[in-house]
């Protein structure tokens, strides 16, 4: 392997794990490019520097490097690299909370990708467009972009984590009330997650599938899935998903009158989350509201219910204020 290829290999690895090391390697690559007069390499080194600064959250420097890199590739009409840089600039503006500008860069990245011989690189900006529209609540547009991203991945057989994009598709189909297609996409996500040995995505997609089964009035199937998933979560140390799965299972058991099993599971999960709340996502804090509901509606113990509601309030900053009793 040549010195340049070895340096690129280390830079790309360090961009994920150690952006400071990636920045140092990028500067070395820039020096090589300047010494050899290789303009393509010069543009690539600037792009690497931009990505390293992005990882370090030094957004002004990142954007400056991307701008310089883009000029190099534009002059040489290298549409593939132009697409890559534009996608990276979209990430800069997304981190700056300017979604409109981020969208414009991601869209421009897709356009350049389609001009290049390697149109497969359109995957990343298409995926980013889907995510940003999903976060805006523009689900139909998001679904359009994720479907395009899936087409690119499948057509070019890209080594991308397909479980992730199929799961996003499942969520977007669900938002569009297309539960059948959502279920199909979710099963694909689970299948790919298993191939990828992605335990977290396997668990996440399986929980999504269980909630879809509930929407299709298949409560017994949903219950079987969630019981199996609880064991899977425990076996793989997926604490957060274990709590989220417990929340959905408790809701189901409340509906079917299996209150004793629900309360036993609640007690177990409440103890875990209360011991280290920061270890869990905010969605897990609903477990305290559910205990409050149990105390209030089943045990008729308003004082105990309020204690749990107040603790839930302290974690969620007043979102469920209406659950407090006078």
Description:
The protein is mainly α and 326 residues long. Helices cover 80% and strands 0% of the residues. The chain has 16 helices and no strands. The chain has helices at residues 3-17, 19-36, 39-55, 59-75, 79-95, 99-115, 123-136, 139-156, 162-175, 179-195, 199-215, 219-235, 239-256, 259-275, 286-298, 302-316. Helix 10 runs antiparallel to helix 11 (199-215) and helix 13 (239-256) packs antiparallel against helix 14 (259-275).
Strand content: under 5%
Q: Report the count of strand segments.
A: 0
Give the C-alpha Rg: 24 Å
The chain-level mean pLDDT equals 95
What overall geometry do the principal axes of the alpha carbons give?
A: elongated
Q: Characterize the largest beta sheet: strand count, sense, and whether it forms a barrel.
A: none
Helical fraction equals: over 70%
| Count of DSSP H/I helices | 16
Order of helices and strands: HHHHHHHHHHHHHHHH
Structural class: mainly alpha
Name the poorly predicted regions: none
Cα distance spanning the termini: 73 Å
What's a quick, concise take on this entry?
The protein is mostly helical and 326 residues long.
């Amino acid at each position: 392997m040549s010195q340049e290829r070895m340096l690129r290999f280390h830079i790309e690895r360090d961009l994920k794990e150690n952006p400071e090391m990636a920045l140092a390697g990028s500067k070395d690559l820039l020096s090589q490019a300047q010494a050899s007069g290789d303009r393509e390499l010069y543009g690539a080194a600037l792009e690497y520097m931009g990505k390293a600064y992005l990882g370090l959250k030094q957004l002004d420097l990142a954007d400056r490097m991307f701008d310089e890199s883009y000029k190099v590739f534009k002059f040489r009409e290298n549409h593939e690299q132009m697409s890559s840089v534009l996608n990276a600039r979209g990430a800069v503006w997304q981190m700056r909370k300017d979604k409109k500008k981020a969208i414009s860069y991601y869209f421009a990245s897709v356009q350049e990708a389609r001009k290049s011989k390697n149109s497969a690189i359109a995957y990343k900006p298409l995926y980013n467009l889907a995510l940003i529209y999903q976060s805006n609540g523009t689900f139909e547009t998001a679904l359009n972009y994720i479907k395009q991203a899936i087409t690119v991945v499948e057509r070019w057989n890209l080594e991308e984590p397909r479980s992730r994009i199929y799961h996003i598709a499942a969520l977007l189909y669900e938002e569009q009330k297309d539960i059948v297609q959502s279920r199909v996409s979710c099963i694909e996500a689970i299948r790919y997650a298993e191939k990828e040995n992605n335990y977290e995505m396997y668990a996440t997609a399986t929980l999504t599938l269980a909630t879809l089964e509930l929407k299709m009035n298949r409560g017994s199937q949903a219950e079987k899935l969630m019981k199996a998933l609880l064991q899977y979560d425990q076996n793989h140390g997926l604490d957060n998903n274990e709590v989220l799965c417990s929340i959905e299972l408790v809701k189901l058991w409340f509906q079917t009158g299996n209150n004793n099993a629900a309360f036993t599971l609640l007690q177990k999960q409440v103890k875990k989350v209360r011991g280290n709340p920061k270890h869990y996502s905010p969605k897990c804090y609903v477990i305290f509201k559910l205990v409050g509901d149990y105390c209030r509606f089943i045990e008729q113990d308003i004082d105990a219910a309020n204690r749990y509601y107040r603790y839930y309030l302290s974690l969620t900053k007043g979102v469920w204020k209406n659950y407090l009793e006078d």
